[in-house]
Amino acid sequence: LGSSLTRSHVVRTAMMPSSARLPFLTTPTFQPKRAPSSPRPPAFSSQPGGAAPKADNIVWSDALLSNAERTALSGCRGATIWMTGLSGSGKSTVGALVEKHLIEAGLLSYRLDGDNVRFGLNRDLGFSEADRKENIRRIAEVSKLFTDCGVLTICSFISPYRSDRDSAREVFTKEGLPFFEVFVDVPIEVAESRDPKGLYKKARDGKLKGFTGIDAPYEAPLKPELTVKTHEHSPEECVEQIVAMLAKHGIKPPVRRDSVDAP
Fold it and tell me: DSSP characters for 85-130?
């Protein structure tokens, strides 16, 4: 019965006009490039320590569309905006506003926040130097996937070590994907005076060890694509600076839509 139904379906489908067939049965408008015959895994040197996967029985599966073809068909060009700075510098505040601005402007965008990812993806990680490195490695790989599929990805992470941020950038560079490092630069005194989570006080009281800026280092970027100073500019002005940076690199919104309230 199953085989007869299959044959009957094929015959009926073949007799249909092309416009009535299911999308996956129609002839594509272009022929995608054939996947190479040999595997093309990511370069392991882009990962901290250059570690290869533990599994040795895996083979890289190539997509049928290049990033350029995917962008052309979807109309969405991805990029990662990596916001780094001290706790209390304003990364999350500005990042959330950037996400809202881009979406309201008609651009596909999503924000990955340092605390939020520790509730799920990185819930097994603490704040040791090794865990911090793994935290950034994972986020770099996730944001690379978002960027590759056309999402403007905003990463709000302290990411205190310069080498980790450089490794994150290299993940994108090797794939030819846009990566913008944004230094949210405020003096430690300003960040500590804000102390939105009460963490600086805990660190000063000796109740929190290894806190960035107090008893753990923060290595400022040497050549970020953009530096914003939230103690000198309002959050909205910082958003304007970031949007202008994106526009300078050809990432511009379509005709702006009216803002809508979330349901």
Answer: --TTSSHHHHHHHHHHHHHHTT--EEEEETTGGGGTTTTT--SSHH
Residues 155-179 as b or e (16 or more Cβ within 10 Å = b): bbbbbbbeebbebbbbbbeeeebbb
Alpha-helical runs (H) found in 24-90 = 67-74
Partnered with residue 179 across adjacent β-strands are 80
- pTM for the full predicted model: 0.74
Both tokens assigned to 59? 């083979």
The residues of the chain scoring below 50 in pLDDT are 1-40, 44-49, 256, 259
Helix (DSSP H) and strand (DSSP E) numbers for the chain: 8, 5
Beta-ladder partners of 84? 183
Residues 211/199, Cβ–Cβ less than 8 Å: yes
How far apart are the C-alpha atoms of 131 and 219, rounded to whole Å? Answer: 17
Q: Is 3 a known active-site residue? A: no
Tens digits of residue pLDDT in 126-154:
888 899 899 999 999 999 999 998 999 99
Helix H, strand E, coil C: the string for 205-231 is CCCCCCCECCCECCCCCCCCCEEECCC
Among the listed residues 156, 159, 234, 259, the single catalytic one is 156
What pLDDT does 46 receive?
42
Q: What is the C-alpha separation between 177 and 144, in angstroms, rounded?
A: 8
